[in-house]
């Protein structure tokens, strides 16, 4: 299977043909109206009814009009939108990710591409064109954010020592025609590693910020991959073919050929300046931090560019849904392959926990020790992720939090089954103790909970499957309302059940319970 899109525009056409795109032709102000309109569907519609938006007539609070449009929610307004971006049926999303992670494909260099339609180089020309501010970047949280931020950028950099590529999504504050602030959540972000190395070598770091292009780049760019794994190669894995890249004008970097906008420049790793605050996936405004800034040397773009934004901030959002799907696949593979825990079936992340704070690992018949192995290993993948990590058995439906609460309530004893680990990075967590300087430090902790059954259990107390199946046909005959059944929907044995229990239950279904009554009377009469 090869990837169906050459660029973002092909993907928008696919969304449109599936009824998943809302085109807005009315004038909409990007500084005040645009994101609030899209936000409403995340506060007022169920996920399956949410759609992507394309704003075709964008203005701003300075009464500017823009040659181009704004696309938002186009990767993950809903699971259907995400599957469309991946170019796969909904039930194949996991399989495509597992394939991409196990079979990356390196990008292919081509001579030129649509991202070179317009080339703007040099400080004076950039300033005269408006530079990065000439594009309709929306204000995400009007009333609280202090600027428009790039929310869907792919920051392309190379390891200053090895030359290896990294592509990561980090928000960018629009500070001037030639200046974009870079915010890094944690020192473990890969661009932060590149900046530390550049600083040690006494060099500036070359950067290209990509907007748009084939959607697969963006799905890889927000993914938590190990350091040294190239997101370009994972993009190729997702596409089943190499990503086409072109050379930049002013920096030694290659970028997706069909991108809408490329912002080239360098960062002085010695220079930090205030950035933010900005609405975050924690559901709160994030702090103002001292951060580096990109000094722009060139911009290249397509004619009438489609400027993409991710709707992020308060969860659930496009950001949390795309990270949920990504993380679930990365953690599953990590626990099963790298950590050798075959009992792991899947890992579920929760959008209201920003997909960083809480996750539940589902294990099938774990052997002694495997639940703790999975809990410690999952906690070890990334210092800023996993404040609450829970292990459950495979009869728990992790996508249904009520089912998780059932496991926590009757398969867990706090004194025996809970551990608290120290040394986590409390990312965007206002409840965490702040060290005196206000700098991020490992002052967070993690709660690990083994909520798997610790031994044989009595049966789940629902009627046995044959009786529930019979009930289902009766239900239909009686023309009762359509059901959507929750797991579990019938009883099943869990080890603690004897031949005698089984026989007594059988007799009861045959109406012969008085025989059991007699047996259980003292003295028998
Ligand atoms: C909408 C959105 C915004 C994000 N903003 C930031 C950000 O401002 N800073 C940051 O460090 N990570 C941010 N992330 C998370 C990173 O994209 C993620 O950690 C990714 O793994 C970074 O790439 P890396 O692992 O190569 O460093 C954001 C993710 C999304 C989906
Ligand atoms: Mn990376």
For this entry, give a set of tags.
525 residues, binds manganese (II) ion, alpha+beta, nine-stranded antiparallel β-sheet, five-stranded mixed β-sheet, 29% helix, binds flavin mononucleotide
Architecture overview:
Helix content is 29%, strand content 22%. With 525 residues, it is an alpha+beta fold. The longest helix is centred in the middle third of the chain and has 21 residues, at 318-338. The chain is elongated, with a radius of gyration of 27 Å. It starts with 7 loop residues before the first helix and ends in a 6-residue tail after the last helix. The protein binds flavin mononucleotide and manganese (II) ion.
Low-confidence stretches: none
Report the average pLDDT across residues: 96
Helix content: 25-40%
Number of extended strands: 25
Short description:
The chain has 525 residues and is an alpha+beta fold.
What's the structural blueprint in terms of helices and strands?
Layout: H1 8-17, E1 21-24, E2 28-29, H2 34-44, E3 52-55, E4 58-59, E5 69-72, H3 79-86, H4 93-102, E6 108-109, E7 118-121, H5 123-129, E8 149-150, E9 154-158, E10 165-168, E11 172-176, E12 179-182, H6 190-200, E13 205-211, H7 215-221, H8 231-239, E14 244-247, E15 254-256, E16 261-267, E17 273-275, E18 289-291, E19 293-301, E20 306-309, H9 318-338, E21 344-349, E22 358-363, H10 370-380, E23 388-393, H11 401-410, H12 414-417, E24 418-424, E25 444-450, H13 465-477, H14 499-509, H15 513-519
Parallel strand pairs: 1-3, 2-4, 5-20, 6-14, 22-23, 23-25
Antiparallel strand pairs: 3-5, 7-19, 8-11, 9-10, 9-13, 11-12, 12-19, 13-16, 14-15, 16-19, 17-18, 21-22, 24-25
Helix pairs in contact: 4-8, 4-9, 7-8, 14-15
Bound molecules: flavin mononucleotide and manganese (II) ion.
């Amino acid at each position: 299977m090869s990837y169906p899109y050459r660029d973002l525009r092909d993907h928008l056409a696919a969304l449109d043909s599936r009824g998943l795109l809302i085109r807005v032709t009315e004038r909409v102000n990007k500084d005040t109206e645009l994101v609030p309109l899209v936000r409403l569907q995340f506060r007022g519609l169920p996920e399956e009814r949410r759609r992507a938006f394309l704003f075709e007539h964008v203005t701003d609070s300075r009464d500017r009009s823009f040659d181009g449009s704004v696309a938002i929610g186009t990767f993950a307004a809903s699971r259907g939108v995400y599957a469309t971006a991946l170019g796969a049926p909904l039930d194949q999303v996991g399989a495509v990710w597992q394939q991409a992670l196990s079979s990356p494909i390196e990008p292919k260099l081509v001579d030129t591409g649509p991202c070179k339609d317009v080339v703007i180089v040099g400080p004076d020309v950039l300033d005269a064109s408006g530079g990065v501010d000439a594009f309709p970047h929306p204000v995400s949280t009007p009333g609280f954010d202090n600027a428009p931020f790039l929310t869907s950028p792919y920051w392309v950099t190379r390891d200053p020592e090895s030359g290896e590529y990294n592509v990561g999504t980090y928000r960018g504050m629009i500070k001037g025609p030639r200046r974009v602030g870079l915010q890094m959540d944690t020192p473990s972000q890969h661009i932060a590693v590149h900046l530390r190395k550049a600083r040690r070598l006494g060099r500036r770091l070359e950067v290209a910020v990509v907007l748009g292009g084939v959607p697969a780049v963006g799905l890889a760019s927000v993914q938590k991959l190990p350091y040294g794994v190239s997101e370009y190669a994972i993009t190729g894995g997702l596409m089943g073919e190499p990503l086409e890249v072109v050379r930049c004008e002013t920096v030694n970097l290659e970028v997706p050929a069909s991108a809408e906008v490329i912002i080239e420049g360098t960062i002085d790793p010695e220079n930090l300046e205030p950035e933010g605050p900005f609405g975050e996936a924690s559901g709160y405004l994030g702090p103002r931090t001292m951060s580096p800034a990109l000094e722009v040397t060139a911009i290249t773009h397509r004619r009438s560019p489609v400027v993409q934004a991710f709707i992020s901030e308060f969860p659930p959002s496009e950001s949390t849904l795309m990270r949920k799907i990504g993380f679930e696949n990365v953690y599953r593979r990590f626990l099963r392959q790298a950590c050798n825990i075959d009992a792991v079936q899947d890992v579920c992340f929760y959008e209201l926990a920003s997909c960083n704070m809480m996750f539940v690992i589902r294990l099938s018949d774990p052997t002694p020790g495997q639940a703790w192995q999975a809990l410690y290993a999952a906690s070890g993948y990334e210092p800023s992720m996993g404040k609450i990590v829970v292990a459950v058995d495979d009869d728990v439906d992790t996508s249904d939090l009520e089912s998780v609460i059932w496991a926590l309530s009757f398969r867990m004893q706090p004194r025996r089954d809970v551990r608290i680990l120290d040394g986590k990075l409390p990312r965007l967590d206002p409840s965490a103790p702040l060290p005196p300087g206000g700098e991020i430090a490992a002052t967070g902790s993690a709660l690990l909970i083994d909520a798997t059954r610790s031994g044989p259990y009595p049966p789940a107390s629902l009627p046995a499957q044959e009786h529930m199946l019979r009930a289902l046909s009766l239900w239909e005959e009686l023309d009762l309302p359509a059901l959507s059944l929750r797991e579990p929907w019938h009883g099943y044995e869990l080890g603690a059940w004897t031949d005698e229990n089984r026989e007594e239950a059988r007799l009861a279904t045959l109406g012969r319970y008085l025989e059991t009554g007699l047996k259980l009377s003292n003295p028998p009469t």
